Each structure stands twice: as structure tokens, then as C-alpha cells.
């Protein structure tokens, strides 16, 4: 086979491999867990995309939350922004990046008092959705 033929075959196989993977599912809700290191309490909480929920002195805002279809290997990730409200009531961004549910220690937010990590991405929640104007 000529070098051009090999290149065409490789491109065709790469195209097929890309088609074999299912589309990631975009979810409207991210489920987080957080620990208050002082009390030892672990709390799970749901947050809708682009909404902010306060956990202790932290404000958690997911921007996008993806999961893989049930037929694929589990992969769940979310792009999250976390701000801290300081004692003098200033807001500081302490985290902006991807969190991975399958590897919670990889990009969890580790704060002096609070830790937060992604548990799951969901299509619905018991928490009522935010009001839209």
C-alpha cells in the first residue's frame, strides 16, 4: 500500500473510532458533596447550571456538567467556579476548573474549613429549579 493509501486508511479508521463513541450528555444539575472539617458533617447538595449555592463560606457555581451514556464507561465531569467569602466580606475566587466525579481527589476544592467535590451530574433534582424571568 502506498503512503497516501495508508494515510487515507488511518484517517478512515480514526473517523470510525470517533463515531463509535456516544455523545456526552449535558445535564442541568450537578450534585456535590461537601465536608465541614470542624463539625465533621458531610452534606450532599444539588446545584443547577449557572446558579450559585452557598456551602459555609464557599459559593459553588457549576457552569456545565457532562456525563457519559449508560452504555459507556462512566465519565462525569463539570466545570465549576468556587468563591470564598472572607471574614471582611470580600469575595475571592479560589477555584475555577474541571472536577471529575470518578476521581474526586483530583480537583476537589480543599479549603481550611470546607472541602467540596463533584458526585454526579443529573437530569433532575428534588430541589426546585431557579425562577427564570
Automatic annotation (TrEMBL):
Q: What name is this protein filed under? A: DUF2155 domain-containing protein
Keywords attached to this Swiss-Prot or TrEMBL record, sorted alphabetically, are: Signal
Which InterPro entries does the UniProt entry name for this protein? DUF2155
Q: Spell out the Pfam families in the cross-references.
A: DUF2155
- Which domain of life does the protein's organism represent? Bacteria
Which residues, if any, are the signal sequence?
1-22
Amino acid at each position: 500500500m502506498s503512503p497516501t493509501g495508508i494515510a487515507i486508511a488511518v484517517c478512515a479508521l480514526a473517523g470510525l473510532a470517533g463515531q463509535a463513541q456516544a455523545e456526552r450528555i449535558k445535564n442541568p444539575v450537578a450534585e456535590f458533596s461537601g465536608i465541614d472539617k470542624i463539625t465533621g458533617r458531610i452534606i450532599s447538595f444539588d446545584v443547577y447550571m449557572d446558579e450559585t449555592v452557598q456551602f459555609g463560606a464557599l459559593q459553588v457555581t457549576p457552569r456545565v456538567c457532562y456525563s457519559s451514556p449508560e452504555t459507556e464507561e462512566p465519565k462525569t465531569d463539570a466545570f465549576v467556579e468556587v468563591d470564598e467569602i472572607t471574614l471582611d466580606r470580600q469575595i475571592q475566587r479560589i477555584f475555577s476548573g474541571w472536577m471529575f466525579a470518578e476521581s474526586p481527589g483530583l480537583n476537589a476544592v480543599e479549603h481550611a474549613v470546607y472541602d467540596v467535590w463533584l458526585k454526579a451530574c443529573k437530569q433532575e433534582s428534588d430541589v426546585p429549579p431557579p425562577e427564570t424571568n
